[in-house]
């Protein structure tokens, strides 16, 4: 079985579970859970921040960040497709009374610097106070490059705004671009965060933990964030059992993300080859470029409606969304590679697609 729906589906490994079972525990709301304190220190040191805060989910660390940077009536600049804007139930508006100012994404996943600058409102009672810029990296599997990250941070600083990274998959971005900078993924991640006021880092995606996300920032910011976490119901007690998984993941599961990226590229190349060679797929299936662990493929809708159940019957799960192109109705399928997808799973998946194409002809 290959579950490509998300990298959130990973199961904790035996070694991770052992670490969890032997974790020293306290009460994190009283700030005395030793394993949680150790995880927060470890992550803050790795990414170059003063402090960190453990919370149940990436949605919550993002919301805590936005509510800690902004007051009621402030505004946050976001991307139309950012998770913080589109996929978190409108939490910043509903729970934070923060006005989102969404901007269109460029094809490389960035927000144009000129669009950000133009969106910043003058200090005028007609307008919400622009207070925060949110960036997502990686975004839809694309990596926002180091220079771009620095340019956004510099722009925000110049305009007196705070800036936050939704780094749910920051480590995927870091692993992808570290080689071209000649540094380790950990050093790369630190560079990508340089100049930002806060970052949210998910432990339960590619890093393979069952639960958890970290918010990183200055001591003052994390003190404010802790109050917001409590208000949102995210203050948990014997969190060491979860933090131990986080420590295991940060120590062992960062560099191996390169395997997921290689699997994803192999899947893209294999599907492209099948789409070239097999008449049933010719002109019907296009694999979009892969930078990290997420591949999107565009498939003509009628074919996709046959392919998805065929794969599901063979235990191959994936998600997709429909859109209308100039040439007709398309299904864009999302294939996410992760810790629990092996290279053998990739070959079996390609084999299943090839068999489907032979039968369909
Ligand atoms: C980019 C991004 N940010 C934040 C989140 C939220 O994480 P969680 O599911 O832990 O709330 C996700 C989840 O998929 C995500 O993809």
UniProtKB/TrEMBL annotation:
Root EC class: lyase
Pfam families assigned: Beta_elim_lyase (PF01212)
Modified residues (N6-(pyridoxal phosphate)lysine): 205
GO biological process: glycine biosynthetic process; L-threonine catabolic process
Domain of life according to the entry: Bacteria
The protein's Enzyme Commission number: 4.1.2.48
Domain Aromatic amino acid beta-eliminating lyase/threonine aldolase span(s) in chain numbering: 3-280
Keywords: Lyase, Pyridoxal phosphate
InterPro entries, alphabetized: ArAA_b-elim_lyase/Thr_aldolase, Low_specificity_L-TA-like, PyrdxlP-dep_Trfase, PyrdxlP-dep_Trfase_major, PyrdxlP-dep_Trfase_small
A cellular component annotation (GO) from this entry: cytosol
Record GO terms (molecular function): L-allo-threonine aldolase activity
Reported cofactor(s): pyridoxal 5'-phosphate
Subunit structure: Homotetramer.
Entry's family note: Belongs to the threonine aldolase family.
Protein name: Low-specificity L-threonine aldolase
Native source organism of the sequence: Rheinheimera lutimaris
Originating gene: ltaE
